[in-house]
Specification:
Blueprint (H helix, E strand, L loop, with lengths): L9 H36 L4 E2 L3 E2 H23 L1 H23 L12 H18 L19 H7 L3 H53 L8 H19 L1 H24 L6 H11 L2 H11 L1
Antiparallel strand pairs: 1-2
Helix pairs in contact: 1-2, 1-3, 1-7, 3-4, 3-5, 6-7, 6-8, 8-9, 8-10
Length: 298
């Protein structure tokens, strides 16, 4: 049996789609602000171009760039794209984790549960209620909406399968899939770290060269040291916002834990131990766990 995201409830897909959209908005906004700051510094550093008697064209470009930074900052404060991104990502991953635990008999939805369906709805609603307290917007309307569509036919079908089928499906479609995702993210973060570290080093070296030239009254008309240092600062800020370096270590640790759990599930975990093993795996792949590791490594 194959269990994919398409088998998850509509509430997951709603939160996941919003998380992707808000993340793109937050990233685009930050990139725009940093680009405008560098543009403003560059326009101010270049020799001025006079239009008419008094109008300085590049100074006006610099002023417009800085005004753009203020306008985008005001828009960001109103839209809260970054916070909505995190809230919807947390909601999506929480729903996904609970659905997997229900479908493969993970704690607390094992055979010992007298009414796993009711317990599942209760636990999901409790978690989403906590997210609503901190600003998550629940798209559902009306009383009793919490029970509508949270348990899909695919989830019921997998839950009804024998232990061997549930184990095989969970290991292949959840555990290995997550291991591969963390491995890909490590490679992406490593490439990004190399790229931005190289850019920061080169820009800083060029700023040093121009500062030395200006010290000896060479290239006095071009204040390129300031522009280059602003560009290096923008690259550093972008790298810190994306958290590439701490995420490399965090993702490596999670992948290592998942590899050990994979070996244990394939060779040592019995049906009686299975519910707790699923619970531990879901705890490891939670965004909160990864974020905690990233903070420790930063």
């Amino acid at each position: 049996m194959v269990f994919r995201n398409a088998d998850l409830p509509g509430l997951f897909h709603h939160a996941d789609t919003l998380a992707v959209g808000r993340r793109q908005s937050a990233v685009k906004l930050t990139r725009t602000q940093l680009s405008l700051l560098v543009t403003g510094a560059l326009a101010a550093a270049l020799p001025q171009v006079r239009v008419g008697q008094d109008f300085q064209l590049l100074s006006a470009v610099s002023a417009f760039a800085y005004a753009g930074v203020l306008l985008t900052s005001f828009g960001a404060a109103r839209r809260h794209a970054a916070s909505h991104w995190q809230l919807n990502r947390s909601a999506a991953e929480f729903i996904k984790s609970m659905c997997w635990r229900y479908a493969v008999h993970g704690v607390p939805f094992d055979l010992a549960s007298p009414d796993p369906d009711a317990l599942f709805v209760t636990r999901v609603e409790e978690g989403l209620r906590e997210l609503r307290k901190v600003g998550w917007r629940d798209p559902r309307d009306g009383a009793g909406a919490e029970a509508q569509g949270l348990i899909t036919p695919g989830m019921r079908e997998l839950r009804a399968k024998p232990f061997a089928v549930r184990k095989e499906t969970y290991v292949r479609d959840r555990l290995i899939e997550q291991r591969n995702w963390y491995r890909r993210r490590q490679e992406t973060s490593r490439r990004a770290t190399r790229l931005w570290s190289t850019a920061i080093t080169l820009l800083t070296l060029l700023a040093l060269v121009f500062a030395l030239l200006q010290s000896f009254s060479v290239a006095e008309r071009l204040n390129m040291a300031g522009v280059l240092s602003a560009s290096a600062a923008a690259c550093l800020a972008w790298s810190e916002i994306r958290r590439h370096q701490p995420l490399i270590s965090a993702h490596a640790l999670v992948e290592q834990d998942l590899m050990e759990m994979h070996v244990a599930m394939e060779n040592m975990v019995t049906e009686r131990q299975w519910p707790q093993a699923v619970y531990e795996t879901e705890r490891v792949v939670s965004p909160q766990h990864t974020d905690w590791l990233a903070r420790l490594r930063s």
